[in-house]
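Data card: per-record layout.
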Amino acid sequence: IILLKLATTWCPTCKQQVEEIADIGSFLQERDVALLEVFFQDTEAMLQDHQKATNYPMSHHVLQGDNKVAKAYNLYVIPRLLVIDRDFKVRRDGSLISAYDLKRLVGELATP
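The structure for this 112-residue chain is written out next.
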């Protein structure tokens, strides 16, 4: 299962999404969930600071997005979190999600 988060490091709601994901980090790790964060309008230094400040227990990768990526994803609101299942189907595509709702969704997808 992959969480694809499209965000910036400086947006307050994006920071809230970080907290929601971090709150269930151990749960996500136990279910072999990977987090891929793609940041827009951030410098390399900002991304490095973000990586140092976040301590996710699950597999976690940070990438820098550009206008081409934003256009490909029709990015108009941040944060945007896509939940991709084991068959690479997008099961959720939306803005901020609570730790409770994300845990419930991942729990359903992780069940064989």
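Known properties of this structure: DSSP finds five helices and five strands in the chain. Strands lie at 2-7, 34-39, 59-64, 80-84, 90-94.

See the next section for split statistics.
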